[in-house]
Amino acid sequence: MRIDVITCLPSLLESPFAHSILKRAQEKKIVELNVYDIRDYTLDKHKKIDDYAFGGEAGMVLMIEPIALLINKLKSERQYDEIIYMTPDGSQMNQSMVNQLSLLKNIIILCGHYKGVDQRVRDIFITKEISIGDYVLSGGELAAAVLTDAIIRLIPNVLSDETSALTDTFQDNLLAPPVYTRPANFEGNEVPDILLSGNHQKISEWLDNKAIERTKEKRPDLWEKVIKEM
């Protein structure tokens, strides 16, 4: 998979993309991650990429010209399955959406900033708009990092334990069950006996039941979805 991120603040993405799972995925050449600076594509001699909004609304808006130049350049080099814009008014990101995106080959993610981008960018180029929650960040870079991490960890051979991503919270609309590790007894707080029994069938049943209990308690809205799908 190839993910190209367009931003006016590339330094915000240096750390998330250079460590842990995302770093290993790139080292294994399973994923190619590229970050493009909008300022490198502006025709303005002062590297200006934003301007005041028509109509007098407060705040600056990212201009269409440099973004269009960059997107058209990338599109001339390969075909993209999705061109995504990170925005608070987009479709709310969820595990089902991420699962679908992880199957694609080439993706562009555009990060908004200031008051966002000229609407014509969204009208002409964007194929999918995604929000990571009902709140506003200073820019789309952190949201893009969240989306990128969620996608890449699902790609085969990225995680060392290939079954790990399949048992994550939300994969089946259930929250994950509780997990434990050594020591089995910490100051009188013991790991449930069933997990130490070696009976894999009973352990699996216990985990399923705990996942259901936790979902009912913490996220009754998700449990309603499970019931509807039964």
Fill in the keyword field for this structure.
230 residues; Alpha/beta knot; Trp Operon Repressor, Chain A; 35% helix; elongated
Write the layout of secondary structure elements.
Blueprint: E1 2-7, H1 14-17, H2 20-27, E2 32-37, E3 50-52, E4 60-62, H3 64-77, E5 82-92, H4 95-101, E6 106-111, H5 119-124, E7 128-131, H6 141-152, E8 185-186, E9 189-190, H7 200-218, H8 220-229
Parallel strand pairs: 1-2, 1-6, 5-6, 5-7
Antiparallel strand pairs: 3-4, 8-9
Helix pairs in contact: 7-8
Descriptive report:
This protein is α/β, with parallel strands linked by helices. It is 35% helix and 19% strand. The strands form three sheets. A five-stranded parallel beta sheet has the order 2-1-6-5-7. It is built from eight helices and nine strands. It folds into two domains: 2-152, SPOUT methyltransferase, trefoil knot domain (Alpha/beta knot); 169-229, Trp Operon Repressor, Chain A (Orthogonal Bundle), CATH 1.10.1270.20. The radius of gyration is 22 Å and the shape is elongated. It has helices at 14-17, 20-27, 64-77, 95-101, 119-124, 141-152, 200-218, 220-229; strands at residues 2-7, 32-37, 50-52, 60-62, 82-92, 106-111, 128-131, 185-186, 189-190. The mean pLDDT is 94. Strand 5, helix 4 (95-101) and strand 6 (106-111) form a beta-alpha-beta unit.
